[in-house]
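SEQUENCE, STRUCTURE TOKENS:
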Amino acid sequence: MTDLVTINGIAVGGDGVGRLSDGRVVFVPRTVPGDRIRLREGSLQGHRNYARAEVGEIVEASPGRVTPPCPHYVNDHCGGCQLQHLAYDEQLKAKRSIVGDTLRRIGKLDLPDPEIVEALEEWRYRSKISMDVKSVGRSDGLTVGLHPYDRPNFVFPLADCHITDFRLMAVWRELRSRLALLPQPLTRLTLRLDREERRHIIAESAGEPWLNAEALRGALHDTVDGEIVCWWQPVDGAARVVAGPATGFPATAFEQVNPGMGIIARRWAVEQLGDVRGQTVWDLYGGIGDTAALLVERGANAVSVDADEKAVSWGRARLPAARFIAARAEDVLPSLPAPHAVVVNPPRAGLHWDVSLRLTSEPVSKLVYISCDPATLARDLQRLNVNYVVKQVRAFDLFPQTAHVETVAVLEAA
């Protein structure tokens, strides 16, 4: 393949986008708008209307290209990040374009690219990292790490993750030489930093319970600052604390991996509701109650719903002023008190159809949608467009160096 391709944009997922000589769109990982590249011989995978390929040679580098600082990104093709080769300003520009283009293309909404709030930190912001495991049969033969973007079934051993908090990486550096103390056969390992700076080790395994967790905790005690809490999670089972203080913090529950930026996005979202004093406000897919806490702070009667019982239990204990319900949102809407406004923060799959139907059949004055996926946000906004008008959209860069972006859409009843 001798085609010279000029990259003119970044697609959802982080690949650069250009055109082949036959007019087809081609997606090329690790490229930058403005790059002129030659495709790697034999890498082109053709489809009817588009193609995918790898870079063979950068003939002319874009001014927006930078040298990635993480050796795993370069040497192991780590798939955890997609945009380390873009200057940060270019990353922000790409994410604005991704959100705007997706809302126009899928949502059929006449909206400009939104403004974006840049991250507080470009590196070391993640309070959680999950690693996969490959084994050759013995604990000393474990490979624990991440996947290359071009070999999703392979796991390379992780030395350091540059977007993960130093305090978690300090745990990992000590843990790497003590993998034999983890439950076997180990299938997944998650490290998490909580709000009191405790370090949580969540070991998932398909075998016997983790009986020597206290030995690991003791071994780490002298080399790692901060309290260590060990959790054992059987495959397809519920996690439980097996060593360290059972603080009640739900280490397996969903929480933003960038807590500082998460609170900025949620606070802005709640502010868009205006005066909610004395009003009932639904907080659907509310998790551990961070949005409910902001609603209570503004004087609202917050009703928070989430399917994760541990998250709800934690929220209920720390925020008795709000009403917490452990259930799927679509199952309990008919039983909830009529709301003045609604905040939704669904998982990547977006709103359940029954939730969309309830919100359109009985519109509320204001609806704020917090989204981690522009495509499902666009789909849901198109459905809600029957009885709502999108008044404002703002993006928040919770995930620097990756192609992921958080978006908040503010809707009002038409």
